[in-house]
From TrEMBL:
<dbReference type="GO" id="GO:0006508">
    <property type="term" value="P:proteolysis"/>
</dbReference>
<dbReference type="GO" id="GO:0004176">
    <property type="term" value="F:ATP-dependent peptidase activity"/>
</dbReference>
<dbReference type="Pfam" id="PF00004">
    <property type="entry name" value="AAA"/>
</dbReference>
<dbReference type="InterPro" id="IPR027417">
    <property type="entry name" value="P-loop_NTPase"/>
</dbReference>
<dbReference type="InterPro" id="IPR003959">
    <property type="entry name" value="ATPase_AAA_core"/>
</dbReference>
<keyword id="KW-0067">ATP-binding</keyword>
<comment type="similarity">
    <text>Belongs to the AAA ATPase family.</text>
</comment>
<protein>
    <submittedName>
        <fullName>ATPase family associated with various cellular activities (AAA)</fullName>
    </submittedName>
</protein>
<feature type="domain" description="ATPase AAA-type core">
    <location>
        <begin position="3"/>
        <end position="80"/>
    </location>
</feature>
<dbReference type="InterPro" id="IPR003960">
    <property type="entry name" value="ATPase_AAA_CS"/>
</dbReference>
<keyword id="KW-0547">Nucleotide-binding</keyword>
<dbReference type="GO" id="GO:0005524">
    <property type="term" value="F:ATP binding"/>
</dbReference>
<dbReference type="GO" id="GO:0016887">
    <property type="term" value="F:ATP hydrolysis activity"/>
</dbReference>
Length: 157
């Protein structure tokens, strides 16, 4: 991919879930690490117009060599949404259905939920009730703990 960028730059490369591709040598998980570092170093030395952004759910498992300066110059943590942000996420995902729901109650009861968790909560509620989604439906699905970080399990497992 980086080889092709010699003809395509300027470019933005987004590497989703980098921790699944490269690991940490300390944990014996360096299968993709060496190739990744070589490709990234080559890209950084040959391309002026290439920016690489990587995401991970667990930056602790990434090898220090992969995230050092000149490879990735900044680390930006995206925290879980606070109450106001959860309300906004719920409003956006509910759309016109939000008028019939007590958004504040659902947002207050979903502390620790990510934006994806809230989207899944709305999805499940709409599948159950269609256009008749209620606060009670959202509370029921929120209360079952399927997306709760405390359960250690999610709907995508």
């Amino acid at each position: 991919m980086y080889e092709e960028l010699t003809r395509l730059s300027p470019a933005l490369v987004v590497l989703e879930d980098l921790d699944l591709v490269i690991g940490c040598r300390r944990h014996g998980n360096d299968l993709g690490l060496h190739g990744f570092l070589a490709a990234l170093d080559g890209a950084m030395s040959r391309h002026q117009g290439v920016v690489t952004v990587a995401t991970t759910n667990d930056p602790r498992v990434l090898d220090d060599a992969a995230v050092r300066a000149a490879r990735f110059d900044r680390t930006v943590e995206v925290p879980l949404p606070d109450g106001a942000q959860r309300r906004a996420i719920l409003r956006r995902n509910l759309g016109p259905l939000a008028a019939a729901v007590e958004i504040e109650a659902i947002a207050d009861g979903s502390d620790g939920a990510s934006g994806a968790d809230l989207r899944e909560l709305v999805r499940r509620s709409v599948l159950a009730d269609g256009d008749e989604v209620t606060t009670a439906t959202l509370e029921r699905f929120a209360g079952d703990g399927a997306w709760s970080p405390a359960t250690g399990a999610g709907l995508y497992v």
